[in-house]
What we know:
- This protein is an alpha/beta fold.
- The protein has helices spanning 17-28, 62-72, 93-114, 139-158, 180-190, 208-221, 242-253, 290-299; strands at residues 8-12, 32-38, 53-58, 76-79, 118-124, 161-167, 169-171, 193-196, 202-203, 205-207, 229-234, 240-241, 258-261.
- It folds into 2 domains: 8-167, 3-Layer(aba) Sandwich (Rossmann fold), CATH 3.40.50.720; 174-203 and 238-266 and 287-299, Alpha-Beta Complex (UDP-galactose 4-epimerase, domain 1).
- 37% of the residues lie in helices and 20% in strands.
- Helix 1 (17-28) crosses helix 6 (208-221).
- The chain is globular.
- Belongs to the NAD(P)-dependent epimerase/dehydratase family.
Amino acid sequence: MSAAAPRRALVTGASGFIGAALTRRLLADGWEVHLVLRASSSTAGLPDAGGRLHLHRHDGSTLQLITILRSAAPDIVFHLASLFLATHKAEDIDRLINANLLFSTQLVEAMAACGARQLVNTGTSWEHYQDQAYNPVCLYAATKQAFNALLRYYIEVHGLRVVTLKLFDTYGAGDTRPKILNLLKRLANDGSTLGMSPGEQLMDLVYIDDVLDAFLLAAEQLSTQAGAMEEYGVSSGQPLPLKALAALYAEVSGKPLNIEWGGRPYREREVMVPWHSYRSVPGWRPKVGLAQGLALFHHA
């Protein structure tokens, strides 16, 4: 009896930290993986194409994306590509709409044209400012919700089945994104001083291995879930104030952090208390504790 063919995944956003990690995880688990990348996207952090990894450069057109989907014939599409901006300027509007709405809609149009029906989509907890059903922290979060609304058409007319994972803060070994943990790492390593907000906002961090577990469980659920569209929060369940996070980082790194608390004001629409009216992916819980995760991050 011949061995079963590997499952096929198509991944967008593989040039990013989470997308690259998901690609490596899928390959390690025996999947055949097709990546859709822009012509300018870096492949640093990704294995060399070949074998079970296939790279497709998207020229920006819907028709070419249909050709890519037809060639890849994925069982599951993992959509992680997006442009994240905590605050935007007027000149950012085109980039935000093109990345988070235009490309996303082209993707599901291509799925519909090629008979691909299962999508794991990526959203953000920032769609739920002050724990509301919908209140975007920023325009980036608003574009995520706008695509979610567009998805309804493809679900009703083309039979797509969708799980949207709304991510909280994510981190892990090798993460070079310009986020709070890399600021703390720099302070620990070079002893510089940095002015920060008063530090009472709650931070909710999930380690990358746990994030990947959530994506794979979401993919499994697509074939069994009762509804055509479900959404889940991917949260540690244990948010802590930024001040406490900095203290824990100092303890883990063994180095003092020179922070001037209150040296700058809170950002406009700062998330003081993260969204907490979410449901978790059935069967998922975080396994990597924060102290362990920070040690892995700091010493990478």
